[in-house]
Design a protein that fits this description.
ten-stranded antiparallel beta barrel; 1 helix
Length: 167
């Protein structure tokens, strides 16, 4: 048999087997629902109440992921994909913005807050630093987002603190 035909048969067999896999019910998984408190359209302000931008968090891919779309009042923008990985028992976020930074963080719920740790990479300088983000649902239906990066001395410095209020 000709090699190309054999490769096509193998590809079709593998593709068919993959297509027959039943989908996992992410919408019915309690672990996949842990970050749902962040879903919605938000106005984001700093601790002094000054509006910093707007954020939209949507449930996508049959409840298997959250997509974030940020628009800052000074023209900044960014997007993230957030998903729960059952094999690792962790949430992951990959954030990319309009030319400043890339976040790659993971973690899970800790005392009612979503806490993700990893690194931030600055595109212009090529520097990378340890980074952590904490999302805490507040009693008044707001969400506090608190980001920190580790400085050269190993101390955690506030990177951003935002308060999300539903539109």
């Amino acid at each position: 048999m000709h090699r190309s035909l054999m490769a096509l048969i193998v590809f079709v067999s593998v593709s068919s087997a993959h297509a027959q896999q039943p989908p996992f019910d992410c919408s019915g998984s309690s672990a996949h629902r842990q970050f749902d408190f962040w879903i919605g359209g938000w106005v984001v302000s700093d601790a002094q109440g000054t509006v910093q931008g707007a954020n939209s968090i949507q449930l996508i891919q049959n409840g298997c992921a959250l997509q974030e779309q940020w628009r800052g009042i000074k023209g900044s923008s960014g997007e993230s994909i957030n998903y729960y990985h059952p094999g690792e028992n962790k949430w992951h976020q990959l954030w990319v913005d309009g030319g400043t930074s890339i976040l790659d963080i993971s973690g899970g719920l800790e005392k009612g807050s979503m806490v993700l740790r990893g690194s931030i990479y600055y595109l212009a300088s090529g520097n990378s630093k340890s980074f952590r983000g904490t999302w805490t649902p507040l009693p008044d239906d707001r969400v506090r987002q608190f980001f920190e990066e580790q400085d050269e001395a190993g101390l955690w410095q506030t990177w951003f603190e935002g308060f999300y209020k539903r539109k």
